[in-house]
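Problem 12. The chain below contains 579 residues. Write out its predicted structure in token notation.
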Amino acid sequence: MEFSEKPGASVGSSPDMRHRKKAEEMRETKLAAVTSYTSLGESRADIRHRMSFESGEDGESEEQTGYVHDAEVKRELKQRHIGMIALGATIGTGLFIGLSTPLKQAGPVGALISYIFMGTLVYSVTQSLGEMATFIPVTSSFTVFAQRFLSPSIGAATGYMYWFSWAVTFALELSVIGQVIQYWTYAVPLAAWISIFWVVITAGNMFPVKYYGEVEFWIAFIKVIAIVGFLLYCLCMVCGAGVTGPVGFRYWRNPGPWGPGIISKDKNEARFLGWVSSLINGAFTYQGTELVGISAGEAANPRKAVPRAIKKVVFRILFFYIGSLFFIGLLVPYNDDALNNTDSYVASSPFIIAIKNSGTPVLPHIFNAVIACTIVSAGNSNVYVGSRILFGLSKNKLAPKILSRTTKGGVPWIAVLVTSVVGALAYMETSTGGQNAFNWLLNITAVAGFFTWLFISLSHIRFMQALKYRGISRDDLPFKAALMPGLAYYASFLMFVIIIIQGFTAFAPKFSGSDFAAAYISIFLFIGIWCLFQIIFRCRFIHKVEDVDIDTDRRDIEAVVWEDAEPKTVWDKFWNIIA
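Solution.
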């Protein structure tokens, strides 16, 4: 990122004159664009006056120089950081370990179809988020959008549910790190590993966001290299490089492409229910793709970084998940006993099972190390996301003001500490009774991500209605989502259905009150938070379209001309392509 040079440079220099001329041309272009975005009744002259007033008495606008007012959080995430954060946040334990459940229930083909189907939902949600977050790039974007486009009570309920989900997930990651290390040794007790990584991750989140972005970039890059290497390895094994000889589609013929299913004694009905279960599992696994919206408020150039992340990262995630699931289905039969192995946390990982079945002795240890790095990265992301959600809620007066306090480096340190404290729940994993309570708590929070996706889509529908009311064409937006508004309605309907049916196993083969509570209490919790803030704000259920706020936080961005330096070295061009 390169901004224009400061005022006061030599006026007589030819490069400076060319720079000023270019800046003035860009100012006029931006002025024309802002006119179409602004509130009704604000003329071009009004805009010019406002822009001149904001720039100072000398008329040298921030737009011309490229400087922005210092915010509470800093815009220090580069384009490569944004892309890798979204990619790395989704590639985690859900991929490396969570694929075992849909494989053994729905079979290789059933699981593959369900993940492809859920991929259409992921594409829809990220398209909706991309259009809004590029137009109004703020921290904790989708909770802010729910508040401004729908209602403050919906924004508060969405934000608190989402924060609680990530905070409890942080406790999960802390409890899992030690279990992954136990693949090698039990010499260190689990509580000690929890304490060590709790302190390390919390301390790491106290550094400015540029360091978080750099750490996540490299860990995400390790994940990408590991998965690409695994896919190439699987291709070689399928073609006969392993001890099993040419595998091909052997396991699709015996035991077959469709799994045994669940619950029902009727084979076809059981397989259908198994497929539905894998569909819901896929929805859980894909959660995290929306994190590009969290980091939009700290992107150095959100107008360029966010659309690029949306366009590239989603397809890469789908490629990694579907590609991994395809090859795992070729190398691991759905009735493999190792899928039910409980010797260690990673013992049932289909990645490690596929490697062991192919007879490669050292590679399982290497992949276990990758999984360990993945979990540390996930814990780091949990605290980052949770703290930015609290920061966003506080800035929009939905949480105590103290949560928006930041360090000089732009870190919301109190929000970081509050999120990190929830990590203490990880110690529940060290006792039998606590472990059961902890698992129940995880089930409660898991549905929070579904609410987030639902309200991202609903917010986008309202956003498009507000644009139409203002007379603003979506063709003029910095990023235009594809196939809208159809995809937004499709995603809203599908997410509503998933929220309702995700706990269907509580009703069969016989009703289980505890399973029902774990699956559906989050819905009642959401309704409770919504009702509480509805009473506090005494607001409409949904904003009138003329009251939808699409101006706050956007004006500062409109006043800046973002000038990115083109990659010059081979190394810069390499990262420009990769990230």
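Discussion. Residues 402 and 414 are 7 Å apart (CA to CA). Students who got a different answer should revisit the alignment rule from Section 12.3.
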